[in-house]
Fold:
Amino acid sequence: MRHPARYSAIQIALHWAVVVLIVVQLLTGDLMSHYFRDLMRAAETRPELGNAVWHMVSGGTILILMLTRLALRFTHGTPPPKAGSPSWDVMLSKLNHWLFYVVVIAMPVVGLSAYLIPSRAMGELHENTVPVLLALIALHLAGVVYHQFIRKDHLIRRMTRPEQGVEHVPPARPR
Structure:
Protein backbone atom coordinates (compact mmCIF):
# COMPACT_ATOMS: atom_id res chain seq x y z
CA MET A 1 0.00 0.00 0.00
CA ARG A 2 1.10 3.52 -0.79
CA HIS A 3 2.06 5.82 2.09
CA PRO A 4 1.77 9.44 0.92
CA ALA A 5 3.09 12.25 3.13
CA ARG A 6 -0.42 13.69 3.39
CA TYR A 7 -3.95 12.77 2.44
CA SER A 8 -5.23 13.62 -1.04
CA ALA A 9 -7.56 16.58 -1.59
CA ILE A 10 -10.54 14.24 -2.05
CA GLN A 11 -9.72 12.35 1.16
CA ILE A 12 -9.56 15.65 3.04
CA ALA A 13 -12.81 16.90 1.52
CA LEU A 14 -14.59 13.65 2.40
CA HIS A 15 -13.25 13.78 5.98
CA TRP A 16 -14.55 17.31 6.58
CA ALA A 17 -17.86 16.60 4.80
CA VAL A 18 -18.45 13.64 7.14
CA VAL A 19 -17.58 15.85 10.14
CA VAL A 20 -20.24 18.38 9.08
CA LEU A 21 -22.79 15.64 8.43
CA ILE A 22 -22.15 14.03 11.82
CA VAL A 23 -22.92 17.41 13.42
CA VAL A 24 -26.17 17.46 11.40
CA GLN A 25 -26.90 13.94 12.66
CA LEU A 26 -26.37 14.94 16.28
CA LEU A 27 -28.57 18.02 15.86
CA THR A 28 -31.41 16.12 14.15
CA GLY A 29 -31.31 12.95 16.24
CA ASP A 30 -34.22 14.07 18.44
CA LEU A 31 -36.36 14.76 15.38
CA MET A 32 -35.76 11.20 14.22
CA SER A 33 -36.40 9.78 17.70
CA HIS A 34 -39.83 11.47 17.81
CA TYR A 35 -40.62 10.27 14.31
CA PHE A 36 -39.49 6.74 15.13
CA ARG A 37 -41.73 6.60 18.22
CA ASP A 38 -44.65 7.68 16.03
CA LEU A 39 -43.67 5.08 13.44
CA MET A 40 -43.66 2.30 16.03
CA ARG A 41 -47.16 3.37 17.26
CA ALA A 42 -48.60 3.64 13.74
CA ALA A 43 -50.86 0.83 12.66
CA GLU A 44 -50.78 0.60 8.88
CA THR A 45 -49.61 3.91 7.47
CA ARG A 46 -46.28 5.58 8.07
CA PRO A 47 -46.43 8.98 9.74
CA GLU A 48 -45.23 12.10 7.92
CA LEU A 49 -41.40 12.20 8.01
CA GLY A 50 -41.24 15.99 8.28
CA ASN A 51 -37.90 17.46 9.38
CA ALA A 52 -36.62 14.02 10.39
CA VAL A 53 -35.83 13.66 6.70
CA TRP A 54 -32.63 15.67 7.37
CA HIS A 55 -31.43 12.93 9.71
CA MET A 56 -32.14 10.24 7.15
CA VAL A 57 -30.63 12.09 4.19
CA SER A 58 -27.48 13.06 6.08
CA GLY A 59 -27.14 9.51 7.43
CA GLY A 60 -27.43 8.02 3.95
CA THR A 61 -24.91 10.53 2.66
CA ILE A 62 -22.51 9.63 5.47
CA LEU A 63 -22.77 5.97 4.49
CA ILE A 64 -21.90 6.73 0.86
CA LEU A 65 -19.04 9.07 1.80
CA MET A 66 -17.59 6.63 4.34
CA LEU A 67 -17.63 3.76 1.85
CA THR A 68 -15.87 6.08 -0.61
CA ARG A 69 -13.33 7.02 2.08
CA LEU A 70 -12.70 3.35 2.81
CA ALA A 71 -12.14 2.60 -0.88
CA LEU A 72 -9.73 5.55 -1.16
CA ARG A 73 -7.89 4.37 1.95
CA PHE A 74 -7.18 1.07 0.20
CA THR A 75 -6.38 2.54 -3.22
CA HIS A 76 -4.53 5.76 -2.30
CA GLY A 77 -3.10 4.73 1.05
CA THR A 78 -2.61 6.79 4.17
CA PRO A 79 0.31 8.73 5.56
CA PRO A 80 2.65 6.71 7.75
CA PRO A 81 2.90 7.48 11.47
CA LYS A 82 5.07 10.46 12.32
CA ALA A 83 8.71 9.50 12.84
CA GLY A 84 9.47 9.01 16.49
CA SER A 85 5.83 8.38 17.46
CA PRO A 86 5.60 6.04 20.45
CA SER A 87 4.17 2.60 19.66
CA TRP A 88 1.17 3.18 21.97
CA ASP A 89 0.32 6.33 19.98
CA VAL A 90 0.49 4.52 16.64
CA MET A 91 -1.60 1.60 17.94
CA LEU A 92 -4.22 3.87 19.52
CA SER A 93 -4.46 5.95 16.34
CA LYS A 94 -4.98 2.90 14.12
CA LEU A 95 -7.54 1.44 16.51
CA ASN A 96 -9.44 4.74 16.70
CA HIS A 97 -9.51 5.16 12.92
CA TRP A 98 -10.69 1.61 12.24
CA LEU A 99 -13.35 1.86 14.96
CA PHE A 100 -14.52 5.08 13.30
CA TYR A 101 -14.96 3.22 10.01
CA VAL A 102 -16.90 0.41 11.69
CA VAL A 103 -19.15 2.67 13.76
CA VAL A 104 -19.74 5.40 11.17
CA ILE A 105 -20.59 2.83 8.48
CA ALA A 106 -22.66 0.60 10.78
CA MET A 107 -24.77 3.39 12.28
CA PRO A 108 -26.50 4.43 9.03
CA VAL A 109 -26.98 0.79 8.03
CA VAL A 110 -28.62 0.00 11.37
CA GLY A 111 -30.63 3.24 11.35
CA LEU A 112 -31.90 2.60 7.84
CA SER A 113 -32.78 -0.98 8.81
CA ALA A 114 -34.69 0.30 11.84
CA TYR A 115 -36.70 2.59 9.57
CA LEU A 116 -37.37 0.11 6.77
CA ILE A 117 -38.30 -2.93 8.86
CA PRO A 118 -39.39 -1.05 11.31
CA SER A 119 -37.55 -2.54 14.26
CA ARG A 120 -37.46 -1.21 17.81
CA ALA A 121 -34.34 -3.29 18.56
CA MET A 122 -32.48 -1.84 15.57
CA GLY A 123 -33.62 1.66 16.54
CA GLU A 124 -32.31 1.17 20.08
CA LEU A 125 -29.02 -0.22 18.79
CA HIS A 126 -28.66 2.79 16.49
CA GLU A 127 -29.43 5.25 19.29
CA ASN A 128 -27.28 3.45 21.88
CA THR A 129 -24.25 3.64 19.59
CA VAL A 130 -24.18 7.46 19.83
CA PRO A 131 -22.10 7.46 23.06
CA VAL A 132 -19.56 5.18 21.37
CA LEU A 133 -19.31 7.60 18.46
CA LEU A 134 -18.93 10.54 20.87
CA ALA A 135 -16.16 8.70 22.74
CA LEU A 136 -14.33 8.04 19.47
CA ILE A 137 -14.66 11.72 18.52
CA ALA A 138 -13.32 12.79 21.93
CA LEU A 139 -10.37 10.40 21.62
CA HIS A 140 -9.67 11.65 18.09
CA LEU A 141 -9.76 15.28 19.21
CA ALA A 142 -7.51 14.46 22.17
CA GLY A 143 -5.02 12.98 19.69
CA VAL A 144 -5.17 16.14 17.60
CA VAL A 145 -4.51 18.31 20.67
CA TYR A 146 -1.69 15.99 21.81
CA HIS A 147 0.05 16.14 18.43
CA GLN A 148 -0.52 19.85 17.86
CA PHE A 149 0.31 21.25 21.29
CA ILE A 150 2.37 18.64 23.14
CA ARG A 151 4.35 16.86 20.43
CA LYS A 152 4.22 19.93 18.16
CA ASP A 153 4.70 17.72 15.12
CA HIS A 154 2.11 19.49 12.92
CA LEU A 155 0.28 16.23 12.25
CA ILE A 156 -2.93 18.17 11.57
CA ARG A 157 -1.43 19.53 8.34
CA ARG A 158 -1.95 16.12 6.74
CA MET A 159 -5.72 16.63 7.03
CA THR A 160 -5.78 20.33 6.16
CA ARG A 161 -3.35 20.55 3.26
CA PRO A 162 -3.56 18.01 0.44
CA GLU A 163 -0.62 16.07 -0.89
CA GLN A 164 1.13 17.95 -3.70
CA GLY A 165 3.92 15.72 -4.89
CA VAL A 166 6.94 15.59 -2.64
CA GLU A 167 6.49 17.22 0.73
CA HIS A 168 9.18 19.43 2.14
CA VAL A 169 9.96 18.16 5.62
CA PRO A 170 11.57 20.82 7.80
CA PRO A 171 14.55 19.69 9.85
CA ALA A 172 13.77 18.47 13.33
CA ARG A 173 14.19 20.99 16.12
CA PRO A 174 16.68 20.02 18.79
CA ARG A 175 15.05 19.07 22.08
